[in-house]
Specification:
The chain has about 375 residues and is an alpha/beta fold. Helices cover about 40% and strands about 15% of the residues. It is built from 14 helices and 12 strands. Strands 2-3-4-5-6-7-8-9 form an 8-stranded parallel barrel, surrounded by 10 helices. Helix 9 (about 215-220) links the parallel strand 8 and strand 9. Helix 5 (about 120-135) runs parallel beside helix 7 (about 155-170) and helix 6 crosses helix 7. The protein is elongated. The protein starts with a strand and ends in a 5-residue tail after the last helix.
């Protein structure tokens, strides 16, 4: 079994989603939930960006974590600034985190047009930052921002940028589809090309702008990525991040040869998903795969009848494996099996006339506008 590390960035990248805001207490409670379920890494925030994130790291520094490593996020040093003099580098050191993730540019468009630096300075910013943090005794995960766009437009620039991180001592390199515009085939190709020039483990960080965050993440794992970054329920900027709930469930239950969350954590995914929605004061998504209230709900009469005999006939996994439950709905589309399932306690299955009368009444009421 190949263990795939799950790196949660709900508290940082997820909080960048529109309408999402976590208090300090919220962040601490979500972190505890993630740790209890067995997540490998919890990215707590950017300690330089606001007092809340700074205080979060001060409070978690002395806590005992059962499974997770708490990660502080930051950026490479600013241009024309020594790493030891950079405020962002100092904030990472002062966070007390033993693991840090720093993000740098892999797309020449961003280096030249946004940061206004040439390739040599961009590579120096990456290398200097990683070396400085490593010299201070920290573990460093390097996030290659816009890697897949950069690889498409200037592959030499993109590949040299990740090589600079490895040569400076990064323990892993995470390939980021930051704009969320890549398709699974290009993600797979990008991972293969990165593996051709790197020896450290690779990770994947996908956004969901083409509704492919989960598919792209799984494509990267199939090509050898050892870590998947994402958020609970896919929270995040624009269309969100890859949903770690679905990724964990697919790796554990649908694909052979992979292990996540210690082998049993997926049973808590439904509770975790709804907990994060609740803390964020957001509505659940009923049709969310695996954990939504409709994920194992059966409305059509033929479906309910088949499931009552063989659950696998209309369910790709057992709902209990992810902590969810089966629901049989009643509507004008129902058959007798729906009525029997919902009224099981009344033992009416032996009275065909009564079943027909109930079903006819439901259909009449729905025709008038009622909904059950």
């Amino acid at each position: 079994m190949r263990h795939i590390e799950l790196y949660d960035t709900t508290l940082r990248d997820g909080a960048q989603g529109e309408g999402v805001s976590f208090s300090l207490c919220d962040k601490l409670q979500i972190a505890q939930k993630l740790d209890a379920l067995g997540f490998d890494y919890i990215e707590g925030g950017y300690p330089l960006s606001n007092p809340k994130d700074h205080e979060f790291f001060q409070q978690v520094a002395d806590r005992d974590w059962r499974h997770s490593k708490v990660v502080a996020f930051g950026m490479t040093r600013r241009r024309d600034t020594a790493a030891e003099d950079d405020a962002g580098m100092r904030a990472l050191l002062n966070s007390k985190a033993s693991v840090v993730a720093i993000v740098g540019k892999s797309w020449d468009l961003h280096a030249v047009e946004v940061l206004r630096v040439g390739e040599a300075e961009n590579l120096a910013m990456i290398g200097d930052s990683v070396r400085f943090l490593r010299a201070e005794g920290l573990r460093v995960i390097y996030d290659a921002e816009h890697f897949f766009d950069g690889l498409k437009h200037n592959p030499d620039f993109a590949l040299r940028s990740v090589q600079a991180a490895e040569e400076a001592g990064a323990e892993s390199v995470v390939l980021c589809d930051t704009n969320g515009g890549s398709l699974p085939g290009w993600i797979a190709e990008g991972v293969r090309r990165a593996r051709g020039v790197l020896t450290v483990p690779l990770g994947i960080h996908c956004h969901n702008d083409c509704a492919l965050g989960v598919a792209n993440s799984l494509a990267a794992v199939a090509e050898g990525a050892a870590q998947v970054q994402g958020t609970i329920n896919g929270l995040g900027e624009r269309c969100g991040n890859a949903d770690l709930v679905s990724i964990a469930a697919n790796l554990a239950l649908k694909l052979e040869g992979y292990e996540v969350l210690g082998g049993c954590g997926v049973r808590g995914l439904t509770e975790l998903s709804r907990y994060v929605y609740d803390v964020a004061n957001m509505n659940f998504l009923p049709n969310q795969p695996f954990v939504g209230s409709s994920a194992f709900a059966h409305k059509g009469g033929m479906h309910a009848h088949a499931v009552s005999r063989v659950t696998a006939s209309y369910e790709h996994v057992q709902p209990e494996t992810v902590g969810n439950e089966r629901r049989i709905l009643v509507s004008e589309l129902s058959g007798r099996s729906n009525i029997i399932a919902r009224a099981a306690a009344h033992r009416i299955e032996a009275d065909p006339a009564l079943l027909s009368a109930i079903l006819e009444r439901v259909q009449d009421l729905e025709n008038e506008g009622y909904q059950f």
